[in-house]
Design goal:
The structure is a single chain. This protein is α+β, with helices and mostly antiparallel strands. The protein has two domains: 158 residues, Roll (FAS1 domain); 183 residues, FAS1 domain, CATH 2.30.180.10. The chain has 18 helices and 14 strands. Strands 2-1-7-6-5-4-3 form a seven-stranded mixed β-sheet. The protein has a seven-stranded mixed β-sheet with strand order 9-8-14-13-12-11-10. A hairpin with an 8-residue loop joins strand 5 and strand 6. The radius of gyration is 24 Å and the shape is elongated. The structure holds 2-acetamido-2-deoxy-beta-D-glucopyranose (6 copies). One 2-acetamido-2-deoxy-beta-D-glucopyranose binds next to loops.
């Protein structure tokens, strides 16, 4: 009897421990399995780990170290690795049981690769088929029907949030494996011009020093928030009024010297330094989330992210609905309504070191393990506390249920 009570207590406290890590952490889940360590490492390097953590109802098709070696023997760039590995994240939950009981014995699953929009047509889908003898085969849909990657075992299952299963080898896919252009080949002003930020892009091109700062950061990580044409056109008289150095700082203010995916921005409330940040000249803004919306604010005004023009590590470009005004260059409009209380003191800025880093060495996007303490992980860390409460009640509820069952 005593033993049983101790067991109950143990389970109860296990649940309490569990809830502090509420919301799965793929890095931690895989860390328990040394044979999957290379795969785990690359999920971090490619910044896929925070993307996986931010989703539920997904399945990760993990590869053991041998399968990863054979994949890496082709020396894919880190960007290509990201495409390949994102093909291994299915946007549906397949536990071991469900895999063996697929309706009609075959199914197509959408993947994170398909969700990036990089994959054309059917190439982002994975075919799962129950084969003879209880085997389950996997194949990329653009792969001519070959299903020679086989289910090995279930690794972790947290129904119905995330299932990690091991498969025998990487899913071959010509599209995912195609060499991706490196970031230095990106024409960021071209992308902006073609998608509603032409006035901003042209202004940037007309100011080579600011443009140079953007270019210097493209390899090491860059996030651009470009004001849409209508907003920027109206703003031009104010811009023209600035001094030469004011213009440069102003233009640099719309770039952040780290890569931030939308899910990182959504989980990352706080101060963000910009390309214009330089010692005492803060030129920073606050990122705030309101449901699905992400807003950027200074003491002068608040703008909203309205779209994604590019999100391919290490570069992201988003559109914003208005021109964000740095308080270093503009005075708050003399309207009677007082500006909202400052929230500036909140979080320590994390981009501060990144600026000097990315300015001095634009070549940081290597696939070397030294890359590790990356902004993705930091952003994810800051997110850790966010969904805490829901987890607690579920965990406590489950614990009581267990207590009941055991007594
Ligand atoms: C299974 O096969 C039957 C008969 O071919 C079809 O009517 C049904 O829609 C299929 N179900 C699924 C989930 O594909
Ligand atoms: C999956 O591939 C197999 C073999 O090529 C094919 O017979 C099956 O129809 C495919 N399943 C789906 C859902 O497309
Ligand atoms: C980038 O795009 C702009 C606008 O489309 C174009 O004028 C420029 O020539 C392009 N630069 C390169 C290097 O391709
Ligand atoms: C330009 O600057 C002058 C002097 O500071 C100011 O009076 C004027 O309102 C400014 N114009 C715009 C469009 O901001
Ligand atoms: C996930 O786990 C890893 C390894 O334990 C840790 O470094 C990271 O901070 C965790 N991330 C979150 C979001 O908790
Ligand atoms: C699934 O995710 C929800 C929300 O993050 C969490 O409350 C729940 O505990 C998770 N379930 C499992 C089995 O981890």
């Amino acid at each position: 009897m005593q033993q049983r009570q101790r067991l109950v207590l143990l389970i109860f406290s296990l649940f309490l421990v569990f809830q502090t890590s509420n919301g799965h952490n793929i890095t931690r889940l895989l860390a328990k399995h040394p044979s999957l360590s290379t795969f785990n490492h690359y999920l971090t390097l490619t910044h896929l780990a925070p993307e996986i953590n931010s989703r539920t109802t997904i399945t990760v098709l993990a590869l053991d170290n041998a399968a990863m070696s054979s994949l890496l023997s082709k020396s894919p760039s880190i960007y290509t690795m990201k495409n390949i590995l994102s093909l291994h994240v299915l946007l549906d939950y397949f536990g071991a049981k469900k895999l063996h009981q697929i309706t009609n014995g075959t199914a197509l699953a959408a993947t994170m690769f398909q969700a990036t929009g990089v994959a054309p047509g059917a190439s982002g889908f994975v075919n799962i088929t129950d084969l003879k003898g209880g085997k389950v085969g996997f194949g990329a849909e653009d792969n001519g029907g070959s299903l020679d990657s086989l289910f090995v075992k279930s690794v972790e299952e947290l129904p119905y949030n995330i299932s990690v299963i091991q498969i025998s080898k990487a899913l071959p896919s010509a599209v995912a494996e195609a060499p991706t252009p490196g970031p230095s080949e990106l024409n960021i002003t071209g992308i902006m011009s073609a998608h509603g930020c032409k006035v901003f892009a042209d202004t940037l091109l007309a100011h080579p020093e600011a443009m140079g700062t953007y270019e210097d950061n493209v390899n090491g990580g860059l996030t651009v928030f470009c004001p849409l044409d209508d907003a920027f056109k109206v703003f031009l008289p104010k811009f023209k009024n600035l001094t030469a150095s004011g213009k440069e700082s102003f233009l640099e203010f719309f770039g952040v010297p780290v890569y931030q995916s939308l899910s990182m921005l959504k989980s990352n409330n706080g101060l963000m330094n910009t390309l214009a940040t330089d010692g005492a000249s803060k030129f920073d803004f606050t990122v705030q989330n309101d449901g699905e919306d992400v807003t950027l604010k200074t003491k002068i005004n608040t703008v909203k992210i309205t779209g994604t023009l590019l999100d391919e590590q290490p570069v992201a470009i988003y559109t914003i609905d208005k021109v964000l005004m740095p308080r270093e260059l503009f005075k708050a409009a003399p309207t009677p309504a007082p500006a909202p209380a400052p929230v500036e003191a909140a979080d320590a800025p994390k981009a501060s070191k990144s600026k000097s880093k990315s300015k001095s060495s634009p070549d940081l996007a290597s696939d070397s393990p030294a890359d590790s303490p990356n902004p993705a992980d930091q952003a994810a860390d800051e997110n850790a506390g966010a969904s805490f409460k829901g987890g607690r009640s579920v965990a406590v509820g489950l614990s009581f249920l267990l207590v009941f069952l055991l007594l």
